[in-house]
Amino acid sequence: MTVQTQPALRRRQEWSSYLYILPMLAIVVFFWIIPILISVVLSFTQYNALSSPSFNGLENYRALFEDRIFRQSLVNTLIYVVTVVPGQTILAFLTASWIDRKGKNPATQFVRWAMFIPSLASVSVVGIVCRILLNSPTSPLNTLFSLFGVDPSLLLGNEATAFPTLIVIEILIGSGYYMVIYLAALLDIPRSYYEAARIDGANQFQIFWKITFPLMRPMTLLVILLGSISAFQNFDLVYTMTGGGPGRATTMTAMVYLYLYSFKYSKIGFAMAIGNVLILVIALLTIVQRRLASRKDNVLY
């Protein structure tokens, strides 16, 4: 009799275990899956704030890829990603490695907090402050430059310097968060690896290249994935600093473009098509990262 009731008991235990994930599952369904499905449906309609949705097939997607401003915003977004993500990753990794190597002292503590604190601030506030500092002839920064005989420069008002300025600021304010991730991973590496390498006569570069770097590969892939998703979704810094300008689309990113069509032009169906393209790109990035992360890494030394 006991043997016969075991499968039934096991099934009851399995079903009861699913009850624990129901709250999170409900959140995922109502705040992630359903909005995506609604977005997909609305992207095939002509829909604005003053009219009901009417089906128009692939017209939004056709118009989207024929729109020069969208193509420019997509190029700007890709440039933003391929410059910001490596910049943040390299700066965070090198800083974390330096802090880990030097240990706890006033210099490393200062660098740690100086890099991490900007990542705690509201990005919109950072963008407004940077705009005041960089885009006014009477700003404190330009006033300082004038003391050394340098003419005031509106970095955000110049088409040649606006986008590079955005990229540099994004790297500086975002790298502190990834530095903390790297630092936690570095502290998790057994010190015995380093001690054995030093006993065998390995120099600092060999220790870094053959021990630290391979063991940091999974964490680096995670940082690249998180950084890429964040860069693709970047809106608040770009919008508060430049609004997509100067000019018509010098710093226009896909998220700013989506915002304008959603809330300024009220073309909801068209905006949903933009959002779906971005979701597809981010999903592809996630798949690539998962495949790369599945490979095993070992100490080479």
Automatic annotation (TrEMBL):
It holds the Pfam family BPD_transp_1. GO terms for biological process: transmembrane transport. InterPro entries: ABC_transporter_permease, MetI-like, MetI-like_sf. The chain crosses the membrane at residues 20-44, 78-99, 111-134, 162-187, 207-232, 268-288. One of its GO terms (cellular component) is plasma membrane. Residues 74-289 form the ABC transmembrane type-1 domain. Keywords: Cell membrane, Membrane, Transmembrane, Transmembrane helix, Transport. Belongs to the binding-protein-dependent transport system permease family. This is Sugar ABC transporter permease. The lineage of its organism: Bacteria, Bacillati, Bacillota, Clostridia, Eubacteriales.
